[in-house]
Amino acid sequence: MPTLRLLTNATVAPETRPELLASASKRVAELLGKPESYVLVILEAGADLLFGGNDEPAAYVELKSIGLPESRTAEFARALCGWLGDALKIDPQRVYIEFSSPPRHLFGWNNATF
């Protein structure tokens, strides 16, 4: 159930979206050591974002995963900011990331919960 939600005001051309989504999915699976078949990536490009009083490229990211290791969130932040810098040219100082590890009984899938 690893889920990455990316909201950004950066321009993402329609023809580059599949590659960006695939890259994000692979990155999340590698970071968390979970099968990519469970990873969900949500891209909301072209969002209205104002960060630090200006509209330069910025991003808000949510990374959710059952059992997300809190001791590794700094490592995940570096990896995700690096990926956003490479993929969308977003400065790490213009990225907020929210990490969460929902309890198994509060996340549903396939007619049940985890």
Automatic annotation (TrEMBL):
<keyword id="KW-0413">Isomerase</keyword>
<dbReference type="Pfam" id="PF01187">
    <property type="entry name" value="MIF"/>
</dbReference>
<keyword id="KW-0964">Secreted</keyword>
<protein>
    <recommendedName>
        <fullName>L-dopachrome isomerase</fullName>
        <ecNumber>5.3.2.1</ecNumber>
        <ecNumber>5.3.3.12</ecNumber>
    </recommendedName>
</protein>
<dbReference type="InterPro" id="IPR014347">
    <property type="entry name" value="Tautomerase/MIF_sf"/>
</dbReference>
<dbReference type="InterPro" id="IPR001398">
    <property type="entry name" value="Macrophage_inhib_fac"/>
</dbReference>
<keyword id="KW-0202">Cytokine</keyword>
